[in-house]
Design brief:
Elements: E1 11-15, E2 24-37, E3 49-63, H1 66-78, E4 82-89, E5 111-128, E6 136-151
Antiparallel strand pairs: 1-4, 2-3, 3-6, 4-5, 5-6
Length: about 170
């Protein structure tokens, strides 16, 4: 898939075991470099900078489900870092099946074997419940340390365990 254009529906947020968060409508991943001024008289009128720190953040907007919201609420108030993945979802063998169909053979999307992974803390959890509309929540995940491109062995069943590639 080198140089393929990726559809937004295929790029998702996953927990440490590679399971998607339910009913996501939007994901945003931001990687930012903070710079320090290293200008000297030798630079003349031109400024010079170097990277002094990186930070990253993922936001997700989801339709509200009690199970996912309660889990995220508990994780947020615990204040402990959790591991997340950001990457492409696997395509099921039967593309007509989706998690939204309620088919227990595919209860959620799973990540492909290559993704970005890192530890985050939940810094914001906002619920929106407009009259006459579906309830939603938005979550902000702020990186704790680095995020890295990670690949797992496709022949190994992780059984829901967390990869320790950070």
């Amino acid at each position: 898939m080198a140089n393929s254009i990726i559809k937004g529906r295929d790029l998702m947020l996953f927990d440490a075991s590679g399971h998607s968060y339910a009913y996501a409508t939007n994901h945003t991943f931001s990687l930012t470099a903070e710079t320090s001024d290293i200008s000297t008289k030798d630079h003349g009128v031109w400024g010079a900078s170097e990277v002094s720190k990186y930070s990253w953040e993922i936001t997700s907007e989801n339709l509200y489900t009690t199970q996912d919201y309660d889990s995220l609420f508990t994780l947020m108030v615990a204040g402990s870092p959790i591991t997340v993945r950001f990457g492409l979802k696997q395509t099921p063998s039967d593309p007509s099946l989706t998690p939204a169909d309620g088919n227990m053979a595919l209860p959620y999307w799973t990540s492909q074997d290559s993704f970005y992974q890192g530890k985050v803390i939940i810094t914001s959890l906002v619920t929106n419940a407009n009259n006459g509309e579906n309830a939603t929540y938005s979550i902000t995940l702020t990186g704790v340390g680095s995020i890295a491109k990670t690949t797992v062995n496709a022949n190994v069943d992780d059984g829901g365990s967390e990869d320790n590639n950070d």
